[in-house]
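Hi there, hope your week has been kind to you so far. Would you mind checking whether the tokens look sensible for this chain? I owe you a coffee for this, so here goes:
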Amino acid sequence: MDKIIVYLDDAAFARHQLAPMKNSASGSQAGTRWILVACPPRMTRHISKWVNHTARQNWRIKWADKLFAEITPELQAQGDTVTTVLAHGPLLELTQELLTQHGVARVLDARRPKFGQDMQPVTADQPAGSEARWTVPGAIVGMGAALVLAAE
């Protein structure tokens, strides 16, 4: 049985990332075991003024359940088994924990990249992505230059 650990935070983005994996995994006769790890968005540190720890944890669980409800039926329709996990703490440690628990598995990072935010690596050999923090698309730079010239 093929095992795949998938880190996700957006169902639509994850579907596009999982499509090639589903097609290649469907050829195996033993089926695939999907281990879906939900990575909820970070809350600001000032949220504690309005929401207590229990309410934050409940929100994280509801958020993850909604995400899993969108992705899980597609994977189970092929006869594969799905295990769901809610991320807590550093993702690198969670990956090691899941690998020791489930044995050898492929790891797929299907989280949507966010502009200006560094994402935690999920494996030791994955780059941290700090160089992408200050990149700006050329069209935005061009429009900014045109606006500066037009203002003068």
Notes: The longest helix spans residues 53-76. DSSP finds four helices and four strands in the chain. The chain has a mean pLDDT of 80. The radius of gyration is 19 Å.
